[in-house]
Structures are given as structure tokens and as C-alpha cells.
Amino acid sequence: MKTLVQGGYVVGFNGQEHEVIKDGVVVFENDRILFVGKEYSEPVDKKIEARGCLVSPGFVDTHFHSGGNAGDYLLNEPDKPDFFASNYLAHGAPTREGAQHAHLKDVDVGQRFSFIHILKSGVTTILEVGGPGGSPEPYVEMVGEVGIRCYTGPSYKNVDFFHDQEGRLEYDWNDQRGSEGLKKAIAFAKKFNGACNGRMGTMLFPGHVDSCTPELLKDTKKAAKELGVRVQIHTAINLIEFHTVMRQHRSTPVELLKKIGFLDPEVSLSHCIFLTGHSWAAYPYGDDLKIIADSGASVAHSPLKYLKLGITMESFDRYLKAGINVALGTDTFPKDIISEMRYAALASRFADKSFTAGHPRDVYNAATLGGAKLIGRDDLGRLQKGAKADITIVNLKDIAFGAVRDPIKALVETGTSRDVRMVIVDGEILLDNGKFLRLNEDELIDKVQAKGEEVWKSVPKWHWTGKSVDEILPPAFKMS
Ligand SMILES: [Zn+2]
To answer: How far apart are CA 131 and CA 111, in angstroms?
Structure first.
């Protein structure tokens, strides 16, 4: 079946870079793009009217954790003074006794919700870290039902983190835990690569530079080469990690990865905030940016997660200028890749003290071409003949946008997920008129609210203080 999308502003790809075609058209047949240009005169089976809209390649989210919604904000409240805003450790580590209550994510509600949530912001490909760790088969089935493109695998590490009754962090190191985790990840990669009609790709996800031994990381690289899959690892994610690695190895996390031969173009580093020269690291030695750039590794940048904590990458522009491929992710909640583009731009301006930094062109490239490069796909993140028919249509004809001269600047400065009208993956329409077509959203959101209540109620069972969620994190105003 041949479908023609009548823009609007079509973001075509000329082989080198994006270019905007005013009143352009995109024609796709089944899962591939057939034509991008000004006019198409041959017959088609179906027409999609998108005048007044931006017709964009579907966005690529390169750092995503499903199931994080109701409980997620707990992890981002930086109220534990001995953790230096190391958010996931501050609240993410349970007590030993409460460990089984710490995560209430489930495939049917929490994870399904997260996938639909991100799809609704125009993301057509996600890189989900650790999602299938709990229930691989139902997870893969759910991803297939949602219809999004997904690169994933279970996460693994040597360490388990716990809090003692005083709130001190305890690390349980265990070589076997790491190697068994890697084995499971290899089995998942073999079994599910190409699942969901080819929309699922697999990767390896060792946890963090301070939660894996160098041996586990070396084994990961070897396995990735054998499997022909890519690797992503949380790197320079917080100051605890920076100093733990520094004490153990006399290297920064990035220097350690270089030393053990881990870095190359098949690897991406999530977050990568606390590098040499970052104002919080107070470490003026070495040149982490150059190490990453020389290696060809990519960075998956999720600006909102850090802005919530009063931290910025220093800076998006400096990383680009160093020659690093920077892609965008959402990581935390809410998951809105369009807003992440704006956050990346504004955070770069703030870090660089320059309003010329964080250009809309560069953050848009990061959410499209940068993401595709990170996963090694030259048929995603672009609208070009032969590319996958992964298309996002955003309405720009709205009071919120006013008069539109440059649709990319308009998108980055004003757009949010609620402006997304249609999302097409593999030539299939998953979202139309802003509504997900494969499920009743109202019913899902009722289940999500119930799940949220369950998460909040469980907090005293696993949190080291034993206190209720309202005692730990009082609401903005008194509630009755
Ligand atoms: Zn993460």
C-alpha cells in the first residue's frame, strides 16, 4: 500500500543533512519511504493531510527506562546530603529487608504505560536500558503490541546497593552475579534480536562504571563482538561514581574505560556529565572529552534528569565541538523528547553563558541523526528514499506557536509532546489525532493511578527511614 503525506514542512534528508521542504510530500510504501520532495504525481492508495504540520523523521530516544512513572520522582529528590545529588542511589537503594518491595514495575501497566507515553512524544525508536530484566517473554510481547521500535536487553552488574538502617550505602560485590547477569543478557540478545517483526534489536547493558568490575566489562566487549550487538553503559553519571572509580583505579570513569579497551564506535555512554573539567568534579587533570571523541563512542544525553538536580552537562556544544556524536534520551519522568531538545539547548546556553549555544539545528540533529548513529542505523532518523517509514507529524498551526517562519526553531522553542498529531512506525499508524490507537488510554491511566498509589504506600517497607512518602517528601501544599 502506497501512502502520501501532504505537508506542511517536510524535513527531508539530502544525504548530508536535513533540509526543510515547504509544502513538501512524503510517500511511503509498506515499511519504506519511496519519495520525499515537492510533488508526487503517481497514483497512491491513501493520503494523509498534514498542512500546517511539521513532518519529521520519528525521533530516537537513546536512554529510556520503562516502568518509571509514579515512583520515579522519588529518585530525583536530592534530599540526601551525603550523596551529592546522586539521585538513583539516594532513594533507589532499598534496605535489605525491603528489597523485594523497592520496584513495582510490571509489564502490563507500568512498562506499557511508559512505552505509550514516549511514543506520544513522537519517538519511534527507543533504547530501553534493562527493561526485559524481569519478565522477558511478556515484555517482548508487550513491545510488539505497542508497535514502537526498541533496542533493549537486561541490565547486569557485580554490585547490589543497599541502605543500612542509618541510611549508609552498602555495596555487595559479587563476581558471580555479574557473570550470570551477562549470560542472561547474551541469551536474551540471541533469542530476541529481530523480534516484533524486526522492530526489536538487542544490546548489552552493563550497569555503571562503578558497579561492574573491569573483568565484567572486558567480557561484555568480547560478547558484544561475537553477537554483533552494541553496548551502552552509565558513565560519569554522578560524583559518587566519579570518586569511587578514582579511588579504586586512580582514573576517571572515562579514563578507566579507555584503559581496559572498552571504548569504540559501537559503544555509547549514558549521561557522561562528570568529566574532567566539569565544575562539580573539581578535577582539572586529563581530557575526557578528547578520549571519547578519539574513540568514536557516542554520548546519550538526558538533560532533564540533571536539570532537576541543578546540574548541567558542560556543555552540549563543547561535546559537539570536540567531535563527539551526542544523542538525546529521556531517562526520567516525564518522558517528552521534544522538551528534552529544548532543555538540551537551554542548558548549553546556561553552561556556556552564550545565547549562541544549543542551536535548535544541533539538538534536533541529536534527536534524529545522532540517535540513529548511536545504534548504527542509516535508515532511521531521516526521511529519505529507502529509509524506514518512521514518521512523526507535529501540529504547528496553533495559538501556542503563533506565526511560524522556521519550523525547527518553532518546535524546539515551543513544542511539547501534546503537539504530536500522528506517529507512524514501519509504515503503520500507531497514533492518530494525538490518540494511541491500539488501546483505551482512559482505562490505562486509571490502572497507572492505582499502581502509583501502590508504589507510594510501599515506601515505608523499603525506605531506610521507614517513613511514609509524605513524611519524606511533603507535598507542595498541605492536602486534605
Ligand atoms: Zn539510566
So the answer is: 8
